[in-house]
Amino acid sequence: MASSTLVWLRNDLRIADNPALAAALKHEEPVHAVYVLETDRGLRRPGGAAKVWLHKSLEALNGDLAARGVRLSYREGESGKIIPDMARETKAGRVYWNRRYDPAGRGHDGAIKKELKCDGVAVESFNGSLLVEPWDIATQQGTPYGVFTPFWKALRDKPIPEPIGRIEKHGAITAPALDFDGPPGWADGILKRWAIGEDAAKRVLSDFLDDLLADYPNDRDLPRKDGTSRMSPHLRFGEIGPRQIWFAVRHLIDSKPSMAGAGETFLSEVAWREFSYHLLYHRDDIARHSMQGRFDEIEWRTDTKALHAWQKGQTGIPIIDAGMRQLWQTGWMHNRVRMLTASLLTKNLLIDWRKGENWFWDTLVDADPANNPASWQWVAGSGADAAPYFRIFNPVTQGEKFDPGGDYVREWVPELKDLPDKWVHKPWLADAGTLDKAGLKLGTTYPEPIVELKASRERALDTLKR
Ligand code: FAD
Question: Which residues line ligand 1 (CB under 6 A)?
């Protein structure tokens, strides 16, 4: 009986270095691919911004797959039902996928594997999204890592497999229409700013390595500069894999040894992603439970008004508002400002980190099941390798340090654009004449700060100490 291979695509929306796809294309038989927007209980669905990215990315991949003779289908529903059904429909003798690492997803994949095997289908899974999978790296005691630096040292010494080279092509087919609605109206700000898909991901990486990497160690903390790679949404959806990045940087260092320092700094950030996945795999549902259980005993404040002001970039604290508006309008926020906005929410406002994590989940194009909760817990202090609870960022001094001329604030909070540099991070301290000259009426054209920074810091220290 004629047979085929079904590739279940998840966070691996690329052709190059895609182990499940490469393995499928080695066989002579037809290859089908499917992406399922899963509605199964217990699985986390992509938020609004990520879904916009996902659909665009699938459109790009659809053409690339068709050129290799692979027909892509898009489904929404329970993968526990859809995958076995599709395997039957396509008479698949084999089903391949690249692995995921969240406990719920893994349990789910295990059940599907079992069912397929009962139907006589061969199932294989691969590593498509990590340099080193969580069970292949452990401390000398054989336990999972809880601290980043030793994890990074161990990771550097691991043999990282080279990306998969050229893959086989079957005859081209016409790309099928994918069955989803076009992007919602609010997605324009995102679509305007990003090129989405595998080709774009490769271009972004090579431009970054050519133009920005040398200054990355200095510029990466300055939100006004385009000093970071902006690879995060591409990595999130697997339009590029970390092995491709790893080897591109290593080859660059080999040909240009002066780039060694900057290259290592960049790879260590990519390793934070690996570390987040290590935690996602080894810990219990990190988007729901604090990694340090005592943090789940904190009496977080319920303050809907403050939460809304934070979400909409109306806190009256310029660097916070700039970050939250950048997020809302573009689906991305600079890392330094992510730390500051998360710190204001969880410390000064004492609002549960899960509320912030959820907002980011819905609004970030790079909203990642490992990086987002792990980073939120890092800032909140509840994470495995978190900053100690008494380290509370001051958004004014941080703003003055990392956005010294206030350019970032002026870009995203235009109400403040005419304020002198001295006051741009603390307009509430400027005198009436200065505010007048800048056309600013606090409480009318721009909010008064929703929280007093010093007193709220004390309150946070007090609560956290208890
Ligand atoms: P670069 O500096 O160019 O780094 C390259 C890559 O390394 C990134 O694309 C990312 O994959 C990885 N990386 C860099 N910094 C970190 C980090 N601190 N932790 C984990 N991985 C890192 N990153 C996400 O990808 N998705 C998220 O949902 C996410 N949520 C965050 C929430 C908070 C509260 C904080 C403080 C950080 C969060 N981060 C998240 C981490 C980091 O802010 C982003 O990865 C980074 O800003 C993306 O920009 P870039 O690609 O230009 O980064």
Answer: 220, 228-232, 235-236, 269-270, 272-273, 276, 335, 338-339, 342, 360, 364, 366-368, 371-372, 375-376, 379
Q: How far apart are CA 207 and CA 205, in angstroms?
A: 6
Q: What is the mean pLDDT of residues 459-465?
A: 93
**pLDDT, tens digit, 9 for 90 and up, residues 108-128:** 999 999 999 999 999 999 999
The encoded tokens of residue 433 equal 């004449």
Architecture of the structural domain at 130-162+193-282: Alpha Horseshoe (1.25)
**How far is residue 74's CA from residue 299's CA, in Å, rounded to a whole number?**
43
235-258: pLDDT as tens digits: 999 999 999 999 999 999 999 999
Q: How confident is the model at residue 390 (pLDDT cuts 50, 70, 90)?
A: confident
Nearest C-alpha to atom 48 of ligand 1 is from which residue?
232
How far is ligand 1, taken at its centre, from the CA of residue 127, in Å? 21
**Which CATH homologous superfamily contains domain 4-127?**
HUPs (3.40.50.620)
Domain boundaries, the chain: 4-127, 130-162+193-282, 293-465
Tens digit of each residue's pLDDT (9 = 90 or more) over 163-181: 998 777 888 999 999 999 9
Question: 193, 57 in Cβ contact below 8 A?
Answer: no
| Cα–Cα distance for residue pair 424/171, rounded to 1 Å | 60
Distance CA 337, CA 319 (A): 7
Assign 410 a pLDDT band (cuts: 50, 70, 90).
very high
pTM above the 0.85 mark? yes
451: CB partners within 8 A, 6+ apart: 306, 315, 317, 344, 348, 349
Inter-residue contact 363 to 47 (CB < 8 Å): yes
Per CATH, the homologous superfamily of domain 293-465 is DNA Cyclobutane Dipyrimidine Photolyase, subunit A, domain 3 (1.10.579.10)
Between the CA of 335 and the centroid of ligand 1 the distance, in Å, is: 6
